[in-house]
Amino acid sequence: MARIVFDLDGTLIDSEHDIGGVANKTLEARGLEPITMAQTRAFVGNGASVFIDKMRAVRGIDQSEHDALLAEFITHYETAVELTEIYPGVVAALTDLRAKGHRLGICTNKPIKPTLAVVRHLNLESYFDTILGGDSLPVRKPDLAHLQKAFDDLGTGARLYVGDSDVDAATATALGVPFLLFTEGYRKVPVAELAHDRAFSNFDELGALIEDVMPANEV
Q1: What are phi and psi of 101, to 5 degrees?
Q2: Which pTM value belongs to this model?
């Protein structure tokens, strides 16, 4: 059976409203204007510290405030779960993959504490044999070592990565693993500009796509 690793935000879950709420709570405490949902989506993908860098830039906040902003952001982030939703078809797809004997993991740049909080809140934890956050290792995506560790945790077998963004595509390419691109997430560039083996817009399609790209003896 195969080892299948998923990104989280924009792939399995739509979390932009919780993330944006956390960002705006942090800004409000300083009397600053909120960011928009479009900005939130644009800032997601490279981890919380980069998110804060981008948020500071649009609100003119000095670099000296970075660490304090990040700490406050993370504190709120760890309990921001109520507005996050699982994308349609995800639970059925994960259930089917587990039933077929595939081993599943998560590799996300989201910090591990909010990652575990939202995964548990949405009752998704039991589907995964490993969950790595953006601070689980000294490096994070697009460094291939982050994704490699997730695959290593899952043992042996064919590998496949599922994600939604340019960061995910770059990481899969660097590691040389097949990549399935979920087109309804937080990507910042057109699908045609991202390296991928297959693209899909509905998780009902996932099982067939995995059979299409995986060796016959792995599905």
Answers
A1: 90, 5
A2: 0.92
